[in-house]
TrEMBL record, chains A, B:
Residues 13-265 form the Glycoside hydrolase family 65 N-terminal domain. Keywords: Hydrolase. The keyword rRNA processing does not apply. NCBIfam families: PRK13807.1. Belongs to the glycosyl hydrolase 65 family. This is Glycoside hydrolase family 65 protein. It comes from the Bacteria. Gene3D superfamilies: 1.50.10.10, Glycoside hydrolase, family 65, N-terminal domain, Maltose phosphorylase, domain 3. Residues 698-759 form the Glycoside hydrolase family 65 C-terminal domain. Substrate binds at W357, D358, K601, Q602. One of its GO terms (molecular function) is glycosyltransferase activity. GO terms for biological process: carbohydrate metabolic process.
Amino acid sequence: MKDYFKVDEWKIIEEGFAPGYNKVAESVFSLGNGRMGGRANFEEAYSGDTLQGNYVAGVYYPDKTRVGWWKNGYPEYFAKVLNAANWIGIDVKIGDEQLDLAKCEIIDFRRELNMKDGYLKRDFKAKTESGKEVEVEATRFCSIADDEAGAIKYTISPMNFDGEITLTPFIDGDIVNKDSNYDEKFWDEVSNDIRNDRGYVQLRTKKTGFEVATAMKFTVLQGDKPVEFKSDSIQKEKYIAADIKVQARQGEVVTLLKYAANLSSQNYQSDELSAKALEMVERISQKGFDTMLAEQAAAWAEKWKHNDIVIEGDAAAQQGIRFNIFQLNQTYTGEDDRLNIGPKGFTGEKYGGSTYWDTEAYCVPFYLATAEPKVARNLLLYRYKQLGKAIDNAKLLGFKDGAALYPMVTMDGTECHNEWEITFEEIHRNGAIAYAIFNYTRYTGDETYLTDYGLEVLIAISRFWAQRITWSAERQLYVMLGVTGPNEYENNINNNWYTSTIATWCLKYTLQVIGKVKEANAAKYKDLVSKISFNEEVECEKFSDIINKMYYPNDDKLGIFLQQDGYMDKEQILVKDLPAADRPLVKNWSWDRILRSVFIKQADVLQGLYFFEDDYDLETIRRNYDFYEPRTVHESSLSPCVHSILACKLGDIDRAYEFYLRTSRLDIDDYNNDTDDGCHITSMAGTWMSVVEGFGGMRVKDGMLSFNPLLPHKWEAFSFQVGFRGALLQVIVSRKAVSIKNISGMGVTVKVNGTEYVVVSGAEACSVPH
Amino acid sequence: MKDYFKVDEWKIIEEGFAPGYNKVAESVFSLGNGRMGGRANFEEAYSGDTLQGNYVAGVYYPDKTRVGWWKNGYPEYFAKVLNAANWIGIDVKIGDEQLDLAKCEIIDFRRELNMKDGYLKRDFKAKTESGKEVEVEATRFCSIADDEAGAIKYTISPMNFDGEITLTPFIDGDIVNKDSNYDEKFWDEVSNDIRNDRGYVQLRTKKTGFEVATAMKFTVLQGDKPVEFKSDSIQKEKYIAADIKVQARQGEVVTLLKYAANLSSQNYQSDELSAKALEMVERISQKGFDTMLAEQAAAWAEKWKHNDIVIEGDAAAQQGIRFNIFQLNQTYTGEDDRLNIGPKGFTGEKYGGSTYWDTEAYCVPFYLATAEPKVARNLLLYRYKQLGKAIDNAKLLGFKDGAALYPMVTMDGTECHNEWEITFEEIHRNGAIAYAIFNYTRYTGDETYLTDYGLEVLIAISRFWAQRITWSAERQLYVMLGVTGPNEYENNINNNWYTSTIATWCLKYTLQVIGKVKEANAAKYKDLVSKISFNEEVECEKFSDIINKMYYPNDDKLGIFLQQDGYMDKEQILVKDLPAADRPLVKNWSWDRILRSVFIKQADVLQGLYFFEDDYDLETIRRNYDFYEPRTVHESSLSPCVHSILACKLGDIDRAYEFYLRTSRLDIDDYNNDTDDGCHITSMAGTWMSVVEGFGGMRVKDGMLSFNPLLPHKWEAFSFQVGFRGALLQVIVSRKAVSIKNISGMGVTVKVNGTEYVVVSGAEACSVPH
């Protein structure tokens, strides 16, 4: 719903409560700190439509796969993101009446996500059935400083009565996973305990055996004064709570401060989990809510200092980009190489798994430019550590000799997707993983990664391609049969240009890296050759042969690359000719009709031209863009950003701006009517790309950053920071000039609109008229 | 397992009990009479591995579809064949010990399916844990004369003791459906009752509301003498039983005769079902077991008189063909146009639905030649009655204006298959339905069917094709994108030669039938035109245009039709080069690998050449056969028969014989290791075809039967009967001669090896040297 949330440069604001839109709001207002997070569910009971979700990073469950018709090669299990114990809950009773916004009259309601300081605040006035009015204010955050903890300040005040209010802070581990295939519950209890003002629930996941202890401690204030209370503890399986009864007078504010911690056996011994969790809530409660909130604001200020994109003259665009950057930072911090960026982050459980090719194709560039190199490096290492499983996965499909196929979706390296046309055929994902290695090296200049880890992955991927192609005796060329490209609205096609192109690119890059590594560290290379039984002579010759004899479909008359064999047999109609009622196609057309049509879900040939733009002249890119974009329905959240970047490259600033708005406000405006399930986290990195690589025109080539900026008509100016090889630059693009400030101590040479400038530390070292 | 069952020309015999093979035996020994039937489960309790199945024709349940990833256009429900009340059960206790062959020592065991007389007999000797030995003989059949009834004679005799034996005949409606998607039970109880020697259970299916009353009556004999007994009735939900205690002496035979009936609300008012069922068991028990069994033998003799195929000199081949004919007759009698031929008949529940294109492509020819024309006509009418739903089904996929797509799998006309590459794309099934109309008319000469029903179906199917093709501006021809041909080892391919060929054949045939019907009955034609809003001028012109401008892939160098675009890009290896361990591919290769390979599941181009052989010269057929057969893995039960017929046509008698054996003994030898789920009923009609159309070389052309027989080397002779337009012929092919006896009163002209002969009634009217 467009315009549901108020436009504000630093906040997302909901004024008035729309129950039908609550799940969208819960997604948009989600909180996270990279280690834990959850949806913006209410603290108090809510019997209306809600999707409850609290998540602990890296904790998953291999749910038994559900398919209609089993195909050989399907994984037996599908790793699910797990809804974990609810730590935010505070039941409220006013006299005998439960406070439940689905059952009260809501007089006033406001929810606000403060992106600047990193907290969620909700205040409302409500009238119970018996006519009692209360005012509530709830502030909550997942702490960055204490990243296993969260805190809530919940205040309630009787507006028209004196009387008893019961506050019941609780931890509830008896939760459901909406996405469970067989309605199973995934957690067993290990233990629980509660004593007066503190307690914990420790749970263990079935099968995977992850343990998480969720502890809470709480204090109560009446007015400003702490209340001495003796609470009634409640203990059930997977559940603890305490009833605190307060006699409140009209106008008086009763405050519950709830401190919570989620500690996982990934980081502690299981047998000390609950003690450590209790220690942590003790420690943060000593620190106190206000101190924690101040630390939170400071931590976010530090993030924004490096991450922020400022847009002048377009508050909606400003809000959009900040929301994307905020969510990305909430989802992944890069501190733990076991974690990755799930498509829904901590905002929902849909899709399962945490890792898609989105990470390599969309998120790596964001973290490369906005965080320390180790963050992107950790994302690469994540895949390196899963290489063995990628080799196993390829084996399951009949490949051999160390060929690796990375999974389409995974949590721990095991494939958990099960749709043959995707799982077995959307193999271009292997290319994106190789591309991320290239991208990391290109950006950081750190070639040690290639020697230590990268080459091993590259060879395994190249081995896959070398077995996956087919020699066509008829064409006397290699062909790539039976694939699904990034455009998933085509299945089981032959010679998808993008897949074939990225496949041979992988082979070329692998050959190049072999050369580099041999030169840089012959001993390590020799170790690797022996470790993976690499027959350099034979295998490299095969790689070269494929590079030289690969078939790529194209249309000479139109001067374009063909998305796949037979694409021109389709009826050549354009998106603009589609009736509005038919959109989105995926909800209105049968699958076969979509497949037969020319319509493209997301950049496919254009994804290749984006990745490998230097290999093609501008007119080739333009012809392909002009041909394919009008056939693209952008029904993937990953689509508009690539088009925005290409539109910028081609000088089409209006289309670029249109694509930008669509990608940056996708969730705020619930553009695809699916934000209720969670936000589209990975495409948010694409939004960042569309500003920095699109409007900013930033590229890295030959170890140098370059910028070719364009300014959308509506904007006065925009600016962003990027880190590059030790330097930190602020790029400001206004009507008048492109200014590059070096806000670090390290000088750097950049190109602006084709000319090289040395940018030294200090104010406005480089300003180029625009 | 080859050679598990003993070879016998009229029987299937199992000697000794192999628990691991029990489910295969249960399938092979299945009984049915077209209205009810079931697997050869034991009467007494069996705690070993078994698949219980009793089925009532036409009763089904729309189980909620289970898919991994929902695609727009999928049906919400999948009609399942329902396991119905167990009417065969007789629990047996010897003293306090339950008779259970999984827990006894089996001294002797023999099961025998008597195909000549149509019953199942099992006898065994077993020793209980305490050492008591008993001899049991159980004979059971589903009556043809009383086709809602079955009878069991169960005798038990103590071999080494005197003592109490408790016989507990029961009816149990609390059964499970192994194929249920969500482990649901599909039957609710309406009522049950039991009084001394008779009782019933009446059940109602959830959702569909079919009611079935299953009644039993029983009598007991000690030696030859009826026993007066007072049984203890047991009544539970969905269950009735009676305990009958008999004091038996060593060597004495105790006999329980159990008469049962299954009456369905398809044929009676629900409120009279149980009364009628009780009446029926009363009536048949009056008749008595021996009389019923004699009637059964007589009914089967009548069937065999017209259906039998006699093979001399090859008992295994003889047993094979009789088993196929026996099962076909058990499955479908053609008396009820609401019924059809499920792929498993009454032998299992797998696959669900009752109707596949198998019926039209494989079964119609069998029933045309071996039964009254009304049988095949009823199969045609079944589809005619479902035309409305076929139009709805097409609408769901985006087709309009009366275009019909018949379902891939159905029970009542609604699609219940849910695999996009099949459900939405294996559209050649529409062609088979049109072909059956052509086949029926060609065989019977009855053109009134076209006027009354056939043309309406043909136009709806042609309308579908006219919308399903795509005009390729590039080729300036019509193409057929995104289909799956009969070879399901290719999905979502373009321009499958078979599909495109049968599509234009449908259009041509429709145009031809329009001409015929206009001439034969202008008034009815006019009514039809108005009923279906047929714009003859515009639509026929479109049909003609497609016929004239259709693209068919072929390979000029090889002189073959190409299975689909791009087929020659595949690695051209042959089945003979596949390692044995890789077979069957479907169990050993991942799906993408199968799809990329040249390997063919079942006749595809060759299916077209079989259907439309007159349109191609013999050398074209040979080139295609020589190219495709070596690439065919025959992993569908429908594959060998078509190849056998083509091999005969091409004079390759050895290959033809090999294919014949494979198809005819598929279930007896459990060739594909999947007979435990049930027999492959529809392919049994293909077996018949491979004898009559293959070795017999029978064809119908210009209203005349012709024969071009070949005799496999191993056979001395073979003979079969066919009915043709009122005449009944027996064809005997021996080393010396082809003899055609007219065993009806009506003369007929036939061609043998190209020469016409008039065959009049009487002995050996025509004998042609061979």
